[in-house]
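Exam prep: given the inputs below (a chain plus P1T), describe the expected output before reading on.
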Amino acid sequence: MYVDSLKMGKKELKFNSKAIHGGQEPDAAYGAVMPPIYQTSTYAQTTPGGHKGYEYSRGGNPTRSALENAVASLENGRYGLAFGSGMAAIDAVLKLLSPGDELICTSDLYGGSYRLFKGIYEKYGIKFQFSDMTDMGVLADQINANTRMIWVETPTNPMMNIIDIEAVAKITKTYDLLLAVDNTFATPYLQRPLDLGADIVMHSATKYLAGHSDVVVGVLAVKDEKLADQLYFIQKSSGGISGPMDSFLTLRGIKTLHVRMQRHCENGAAIATYLVGHPRVEKVYWPGFESHPNHEIAKKQMEGFGGMISFVPKSGSYQNAIKFVERLKIFTLAESLGGVESLVGHPASMSHGSIPKVEREKNGVVDALIRLSVGIEDVADLIDDLEQALN
Ligand code: P1T
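Solution:
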């Protein structure tokens, strides 16, 4: 659905206002300020094709449209699409490809994305190449006549590498490739890939966008009408849509995205600083440190460094990592991230368990690595919790 939500009247809204108003109109029926949960599969027609814009909820639902418009607005896109999970959104993007096509993706990426690429799409004749995307010359050399798309995750999950979206976009424009960016970790509050030249931005909205660990939803946003039509055709045909209740909850979450992200960033910075100074910590991965290898790119393309941190304790081992995550009391041991509550994960056995050990270790996802999703609790309590577990 086309969205002209960048403006209210003639004035362009700032991000914090767009989080609340972007793409939103009071509901047409009774002026409800929040879109009603249109819990319906279908819509009455006066004559075949005689409907009010919606025919069948796989093709479109007003609650889902409200979410899709909000996401398009926040990402400075023109079209949004909402799916039943982040993976369903990625799956829709991959369906743009045909057998024989090739995709180059960041070597460090969410384990589920790796599993979808290698475990499903490879058998349909699509080839995947991995790249650390630190050297644009090397990336350009990886492109061949079959390459169709570059898939970037930045910051990467879980190693927090930062990829220069603008530099990759220059390459994709030169070689006429599609550039898709998984913006889950950064959110549009910190980084807007479409403004930097990406064609498609994707989110696991399960995470920061919805923000309350109560839904599984995925979204896409694009600027180009033809690309939006192709993705809409895939969405409608394959049917991996977000339901009305989950769309409502995600939209409700988005309305506080800016306030939550501000606190995630503050708490993230405090905890990264605490960890890096701790005698029992070997290495901390967080792009806000000047010593982070991609700090300058992060400063250039992000408006903050977020609340995701990975670290390796000194003399860390698989067993010690498990002991540590079990000892935490406020950080909940759970898959996922980006909710108001702090979570801890052990990537090697959880989020990245589907990547072969040799592959994940090449990227730094060692058995001792621990990943924190820093929530918006009082940071002093979070630090106390880490302190008791580390000691
Ligand atoms: O879980 P789902 O909504 O399907 O989203 C998949 C996904 C896609 N991209 C990134 C960067 C992700 O982090 C995820 C989901 N990640 C986890 C569940 C996790 O614990 O890392």
